[in-house]
Amino acid sequence: MPEGLNSNLNLNEGAPPRVRPAMGEWGPTEVPNTRTKKRHRWFAIAGLVVVLAVVVTYGYYMWTLLR
After folding, report:
1. Which backbone phi and psi does 28 adopt, to 5 degrees?
2. Do residues 23 and 15 lie in contact, with contact meaning Cβ atoms separated by under 8 Å?
3. Phi, psi angle pair for 23, to nearest 5°
4. Amino acid 41: pLDDT
5. Alpha helix locations (H) across the chain?
6. Cβ neighbours of residue 30 under 8 Å, at least 6 residues apart?
């Protein structure tokens, strides 16, 4: 069968050994699971919203002082 039709599931094939994740029985170790990644994604979005609110509030405060 041609090689183009089969995907290679070994994602570490071309990587040097020092950057490959440690492999456990069921997959890489010390890699966050999907639930943790989803939680961190929401934390990042919430953090950006808070920073945006602070910047807008500070800008509005400065605008009222200059007016």
Report:
1. -65, 145
2. no
3. -95, 130
4. 96
5. 34-66
6. 21, 22
Q: What is the C-alpha to C-alpha distance for residues 34 and 40, in angstroms, rounded to an integer?
A: 10
Q: What is the mean pLDDT of the chain?
A: 87
Tokens at residue 47, please? 């953090």
What amino acid is encoded at 2 in this protein? P
pLDDT digit string, tens, across residues 18-48? 888 788 887 788 888 889 999 999 999 999 9
- Token pair, residue 37, equals 């990644």
- Output the DSSP codes for 3-44: GGGS----TTTTS-GGGSPPB-SSSBSS---HHHHHHHHHHH
